[in-house]
Design a protein that fits this description.
The chain is mostly beta strands. 0% of the residues lie in helices and 42% in strands. The protein has one domain: Sandwich (Immunoglobulin-like).
């Protein structure tokens, strides 16, 4: 009995990631997701990624008011924080945990083209 495997390539276009290169210095991994007009964006997927190999270390969803948070991390650790939701461009921020910095971030998701 022969078994054949057919691999079908996805026809979905690759999506560009909007990356904010300048690191944000935060005391806590928390924030609010908003659109370009400042309206909150509920239920976006938030991923905390290793900046070296880009693997997902933790993930959560923004609540109904666009707010999200992760457990506190060690000072001087760095992460990539990636945010995605259908209808918006995937957005990534570089985060550094610091003793001096903001308590929360404001993550802006641009509307997809």
């Amino acid at each position: 009995m022969a078994l054949s495997l057919v691999v079908v390539a996805s026809s979905l276009p690759a999506q560009n990631i909007v990356t904010h290169e300048k690191p944000l210095h935060l005391r806590h991994l928390a924030g609010t997701v908003v659109d370009p007009r400042g309206m909150t964006v509920p239920y976006a997927l938030i991923e905390l990624r290793d900046p070296g190999d880009n693997h997902v270390m933790a993930s959560t969803f923004a609540d109904g008011n666009g707010k999200f948070s992760f457990a506190d991390r060690k000072r001087n650790e760095s992460f990539a924080l990636r945010i995605s939701l259908a209808g918006f461009q995937i957005t990534q921020y570089n985060i550094s945990i610091a003793t001096i910095g903001k308590d929360r971030m404001r993550a802006v998701l641009a509307v997809a083209n």
